[in-house]
Amino acid sequence: MKIAFMITSLQYGGAEKIVLDLIGRFRGLSIECWLIALYESRDRVKRDQLAEALEREGIRLVELNKRPGEGTFRSMLRLKRVLRDISPDVVNAHGPVPNMYAGIANLWGRKVSTITTVHNGTDDWPDWKSKMLERTSLLGVNRVVCVAQHVAEAYRLKYPQSTAKTAIIENGIDPQRYAPPSPAVRAQWREMLGCPADAALLIHVGRMVPLKNQRFLVEVAERLRSRGKKFRLLLVGNFEDDRYVEEIRQLTEKHGLTEQVRLLGSRDNVGDLLGASDVFLFPSEVEAFGLALLEAMCCGLPAVCSDIPSNRKLSELSARNRVVDWDAERWAEQIELLLEDRPERRRQESYPYWTLERMAGDYLKLYGQSGSLLAGLGGGTG
């Protein structure tokens, strides 16, 4: 089997992590995998690191280097040529723009089993033209994977014609990457991160965009400081929205928190950073799944998270999680309570269902089913 995966750009995002994990797992099954990135990556350093890693693993990468504002038709022609040259058995796109392109590209020429994966829990398109294009793209899609039940319900409501094509495959992770470190390694990482021995280390992982709500964490940090708490707060994630990143920087300066709050940007060692930390913070306004929260939980890290469906569902698995509405004072209180639990008592948590192995198996089953649907591309099964 030959699979062509499509992503937005070469970066360390949640959807991209899932794709890279699937590729790694499938390569062990002698499945030929290609990776197609639509946009030119804005983080050239991380892009080069990922490209080198892919090359070492023998994974074939094609970058279309689409630029924001570039016409859809020209990019579509490039994609169609690439797919013709690769000649995959299955195309699996991840993310709103890749999903739209994959479906439309499959409307003419050679038909390919095409699966799109919806990772977002919100309306992706601000304008009618993009919504119309996504609606059209569904005609070229065999199956639409949603990463959670509430995401599937919202997508079916938005695009009723997708109802018969939707399937739910919840995300999974490789637990071996998130084992808590030894006390010595943990202390070494904290020293490298500039965290004093008597300070708590808090961490958030997520793209720097308003929906992830990092600005709220600056308010929480101000409350913690006013309560006399010594701490460091790491904000880890792609600097996707430059204006929003600058807003966060200005807020930390305004509140005099530049020593306590550090913006680390995109990192490929999230497991190490989680292992060094004391509490995970996840204040998202909307999440389809909450992959970063699952990673923290697997590492044995207690969490304070926002009261939204995905966070509530995952937090049912851990008695150490606190689901709280957006009240900075209450967050500060819950963080202090969680810090009373000594880190040496932390252990890796096991969540057998939420594994990469299960997720990869679910996708493989769907790829096989999708191949049998090519004769009736406009339809699907429930």
UniProtKB/TrEMBL annotation:
One Pfam match: Glyco_transf_4
| Key words of the record | Transferase
What's the name of the protein? Glycosyltransferase involved in cell wall biosynthesis
Which InterPro entries does the UniProt record give? Glyco_trans_1, Glyco_trans_4-like_N
Residue ranges of domain Glycosyltransferase subfamily 4-like N-terminal in the record: 12-177
Q: Where is the Glycosyl transferase family domain?
A: 187-350
The UniProt GO MF terms for this protein read: glycosyltransferase activity
- Keyword check for Transferase: yes
Q: List all membrane-crossing ranges.
A: none
